[in-house]
Design brief:
By secondary structure, this protein is an alpha/beta fold. The protein has 2 domains: 118 residues, Rossmann fold; 171 residues, 2-Layer Sandwich (Dihydrodipicolinate Reductase, domain 2), CATH 3.30.360. It has 9 helices and 15 strands. The chain has a 9-stranded mixed β-sheet, with helices on one face. Strands 3-2-1-4-5-6 form a 6-stranded parallel β-sheet, with helices on both faces. Helix 5 links the parallel strand 5 and strand 6. The protein is globular, with a radius of gyration of 21 Å. The two termini are 35 Å apart. The protein binds nicotinamide-adenine-dinucleotide. Nicotinamide-adenine-dinucleotide (NAD) binds next to loops. Nicotinamide-adenine-dinucleotide binds next to loops.
């Protein structure tokens, strides 16, 4: 079955969506942007002939799409997605779901009331190494997971909306890492203690660095440290990870194949260990993977990863971390 879509927001990330929608046979029948020249430029670039507009409601009435792709900046996700759901469309949107938990809950309710699917695309879920890590950790390759660390350090000079956000790292980037932590561990967040800060010499207005300690279900502790204002010796954009279980450790750093050591005996000051490597599981990558799952879901298939009732748990980690930093207190993660 082929579907008709309207894309809202034709900025940087639309370059990762438009060719993949086209490749999957989706009819991109409208592109809406408050800057219609930008929408036209992207249509031309990817050889599409959609209706170009700066008004979503009238475009939905004219085009009657099956679904809307929300690629606006985070502050506009709630209005865009609720308008689309209200018009009877399914929605797939970019992360983070919303700029507040109140907005996110409103969006989940709007999806329920419309009886439509609202999926948040977390592109970093769709990676061969991440799929393999998820499978192996769930199969208890290193026993029962007790400790999970993620470090993210990149010096990123974006310009644009991120430079002005209050919490650019936590809201716009760490959402990926928090969501990956949930995916790979299978655990749910319980509470967090966090400290956000803006390092000396930062070119961001808001707090662009943070250290967070999350309590997760099954007594798992997830520690996250990150900064977008860290020149040199970059980690992977996926973060550099260490997973410790009752029977061994796996490390996943700088996008190299995950490697680890598992117990090979039970005597000695340092127990004997056996080296392991985790072979990647082939998956459709990034936005393409998300689009494929979404299309299958609106065609009657299983709920996609990032379906709003699940994704709101990752967003709740974001807002609990920000609240903890503001109050200097341990904050329960509630969605
Ligand atoms: N998955 C990823 O790895 C990834 C990477 C980059 C961006 N993103 C996400 O994609 C979203 C957009 O980011 P971007 O980098 O493309 O931003 P951008 O600033 O490059 O583009 C945003 C576009 O939206 C338009 N716009 C703004 N408000 C609008 C509104 N109310 N209605 C219609 N159009 C509107 C702007 O004119 C602009 O063309 C963000 O949520 C961001 O977090 C995800």
């Amino acid at each position: 079955m082929s579907f008709k879509a309207v894309v809202v927001g034709a900025g940087g990330i639309s370059g990762a969506w438009l060719p993949n929608l086209k490749a999957e046979g989706v009819d991109v029948a409208g592109i809406v942007d408050i800057n219609p020249a930008q929408a036209q430029a992207q249509a031309d670039k990817f050889e599409l002939e959609p209706l170009i507009s700066d008004d979503l409601e009238s475009t939905l009435k004219k085009v009657k799409p099956d679904f809307v792709v929300d690629l606006t900046p985070p502050d506009y996700h709630c209005a865009t997605t609720c308008t689309a759901l209200g018009a009877g469309c399914h929605v797939i949107g970019e992360k983070p779901m919303a700029s507040s938990m109140d907005e996110a809950r409103k969006m989940v309710r709007a999806a329920e009331e419309a009886g439509k699917i609202y999926m948040v695309s977390q592109s970093r879920r769709y990676e061969a190494a991440h799929a393999a890590l998820t499978e192996e950790l769930n199969a208890r390759l290193i026993g029962s997971l007790t400790t999970m660390n993620c470090a993210f350090y990149i010096g990123a000079h974006f310009g644009g909306f991120r430079d002005e956000m209050e919490s650019p790292l936590i809201l716009d980037m760490a959402i990926h890492h928090f969501d990956l932590a949930r995916m790979m561990s299978g655990a749910d967040p319980i509470a967090v203690y966090a400290k956000e800060f803006n390092p000396r010499g930062s070119w961001y207005a808001g707090d662009v660095a943070a250290s967070c300690i999350f309590e997760m279900s099954d007594n798992l502790v997830f520690t996250y440290t990150g900064s977008w204002c860290a020149e040199g010796m970059h980690t992977s954009w996926h973060g550099d990870w260490r997973f410790i279980g009752t029977k061994g450790t796996v490390m996943y750093e700088r996008d190299a194949k995950p490697i680890g050591e598992v117990l090979a005996g039970d005597t000695g000051f340092h127990r004997p260990m056996k080296q392991i490597a985790i072979e990647p599981t082939p998956v459709a990558q990034g936005q393409l993977g998300a689009i494929k799952e979404f299309l299958a879901a609106i065609n009657g298939g299983p709920a996609p990863q990032g379906e709003c009732h699940d994704n709101i748990k990752s967003l709740a980690m974001v807002f609990a971390a920000m609240e903890s930093s503001r109050k200097g207190q341990r904050i329960p993660v509630v969605w």
